[in-house]
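agent> fetching stored inputs for the iron/sulfur cluster docking request
agent> found them:
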Amino acid sequence: MTLLIKNDKCLACGECAERCILDNIRVQTPPCRAACPVDLNPQQFVTLVALGRSHQAAEAIHDSVPFPRLLADLCPAPCQKSCTRRRVDQAVAIHALELYLVESFEPAADRFVLASDTGEQVAVVGAGPAGMTAAVRLRQAGHKVVLFEAQDQAGGGARDQVSPEMLAAEIGLLADLGVEQRLGKQIGASVDLAMLRRDFLAILLALGPEAQVDFAVREGAELDAEGRLKVDTKTMSTSLEGLFAAGQMLDGVDNQVAAMGSAQKAARYVDRYARGQSLELPRVLESEKILPVRVDAQRVNELRWQAAKGLLAASYVPPADGSLEEGDASLAAVPCLRCAQPVDYYDECWYCLPCEVECPTSALILEIPFLVK
Ligand code: SF4
Ligand code: SF4
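agent> prediction call returned; pasting tokens
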């Protein structure tokens, strides 16, 4: 079997891998995506802009995170540090494109379809970007969600970093989706963990870097060597039944975007726990579908040679304030090298073609041997 991939069109979206009835195809993860704490796929949205499909590019971001404007404003863009094009001349202006998309296109009003009501009640403690993110994801999963916050408004540390108007607009989503907010409630003071454990099936702590966790220790939660809450980084669960943790209270989570990423992950496991499902399963499934792509030195040398000969689209430096106009967006998007693509992993094929038919950009062509035709 041979997959022919048109490099200028492949989004590394994985649709073909999902559709293959023999589970033969795997899609590589581009370095930009591998570096993103919230698992945005820059190859996807950058390529959609390059193809003149900016609206769909924005939708891809809106589908990936509940608070896209907050994310774009807070993001330190680790994707650009890992971008292959940076090793050739200049990183793709991924962050400027992300800002352009979230500012130019409103999320669809119906982008959140709530799963049917599970009848279970979960608590999220801490209403910074991480807690807000987890609250939305758990509400989407069909649980009743109560979000506790010590301050008298949500937003946490982001309140010092972004405009109050934008933050207020993003916070509005919580009420729109029916997340109950209990503000002015500090865990360990006006709310205690024993009460939460009695009233809620699962509790997710999403506290800041300076969080004191004595209240959890009193209930029997274990600490690690640094005196932080001991957390299984694969499932985000603590040693206490039904208690999970995310955000900057965890070791190694050192900015708001990494905190939001850890919250999205924790929400998946809290959901599984609340449904009585095993916490083991998704790890295997997730890792099975992902093939990291490594761009080696030889490939980088080839790319440098192509750039020197003018065979690569010219790289693009965004304005210092990071703002792009419509025409600039295309100039910024075209230089992406589209590092990742599908591969036929088991080399087995029935030539049934859903991979080719369902590819959103007609990037994939299956070469069918003459005898099969
Ligand atoms: S070939 Fe098409 S379906 Fe497969 S990853 Fe690329 S864009 Fe997606
Ligand atoms: S060149 Fe494109 S696909 Fe490759 S790392 Fe950079 S943005 Fe991602």
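agent> quick read of the result: The first strand starts at residue 2 and ends at 5.
agent> awaiting further instructions
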